[in-house]
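Recall that a protein's primary structure is simply its ordered list of amino acids. Everything else, from secondary elements to tertiary packing, is in principle encoded there. The following example makes that idea concrete.
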Amino acid sequence: MDKLNYQVLKDSGYDGYILESAPEKVLQFGEGNFLRAFVNYWFDVSNEKAGWNGKCVLVQPIAGGLAQFINDQEGLYTLYLRGMENGEKVDRKRVISSVSRCLNPYDSADLEEMYKVAVSDDLEYVVSNTTEAGIVYDPACKLNDKPASSFPGKLTQVLYKRWKAGKSGLVILSCELIDNNGKELLKCVNQYADQWALEEGFKKYINEDCTFCSTLVDRIVPGRIRDPKEVQRLEDENGYSDPLTDVGEVFGVWNIEGPAWLEDKLPFKKAGLNCPVVPDVTPYKKRKVRILNGAHTGFVLGAYLGGYDIVRDCMHDDTIRGYMNKMLYDEVIPTLPLDKADLESFAAAVQDRFNNPFVNHELMSISLNSTSKWRARNMPSFLEYVELKGELPKCLTMSFAAYIAFYSNDIQGLSDTGLVCRRPAGNTYVVKDDRWVLEFYDEHKEDSVEDLVHAVMTDERMWGQDLTAVPGFEAATVANLKLIREEGAVAAYKTCL
């Protein structure tokens, strides 16, 4: 079967939106599944809905990458957005045509092409997702490297070429999953400007003419379809083969921190897309961590002890779903500094996202490092609720007992892979966390419920404080842990409703 390209797509009878040629307005560092299901999708819809008329040039951040595959397909690839939306199952196909080509800067000809794009009058944006380790200052990088090994080093080279050519400043949209990603990237670029003794005019250019934006990305992207039968079915249906096929969930939001004028410059608002420009992304990160991530940590540990293995199945249990929603709407949302309607809309989408029929999200994979996760995701909501209401939040209080139960249920011993515990159903499972946490629970495996709870809550290395100082919390956790052990976690969750 022929591989996807523009002619093959025409021959297949595809009747969706396609833009074959347009100015190259985006230089994008990163060509992986996430950016192609997220950033390139938003720009593709902007071409259709807002007449943006732009293309993205992708750049491999490392020597090995997808450039050859992408160029063989003339930048085209098939994207499936799958999941639940307003309670309905959704499976949308779209051929993305917002990508023009992909460059490998470790090839000398492609490096020159990257610099040609850098000085183009058409270029407006730089986008990046080079993993959390990508935004790092490496002092070994030099201005005349071909190219610099670090992403910030490459970006400095690109911006320096552009400045020397007398071209306008760019908007830089950083998508790496670190706090203040745009600010951290600018910091690295300034370090290279100093290290390489570049002109003061260039330093002014990067700090005043260019706009470095921190952004918050939110879309689960499973990526490739791995089932050979499913691949064959789609090829037969589409009339072409596409090794670059990408899959993401239906839900997506891109919060971009920037000045007010940027919202009108970017095509997203005009296209009606969920990519708001905000003065500060911090509250939106807090929303994501405390609602989406906090929901996971808040219910999965008890749900696993209660016999569930997959997130989606938990959403079909009235008790677990009700417990999660009560925790989110009654206990978490009141502590967050955003519009209540916005928060409730985000929380409503969480239930759809967790009920995705196309993703088998295992509870055990979410359980990894739950000590630090409860501290970061759930403890702030818990403490702020106590301060706000003067009482314990029932569901968040129960989630802490479920955490202790998961880490201490019939401990079999400590192995090289983790702490081996036994589920009420009889099978063993392995708790994975920092070694000192696992050693702590193994050392306390013979404790009474009262002694175990006291030891956990007074361990300031775990929580950064003594949690027994919260009035009533210790007694409630003892009672909840006994309830989970005697009647089961799902029954314990039910008492919160």
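Residues 282-305 form the longest helix (24 residues). The chain has two domains: 6-280, 283-494.
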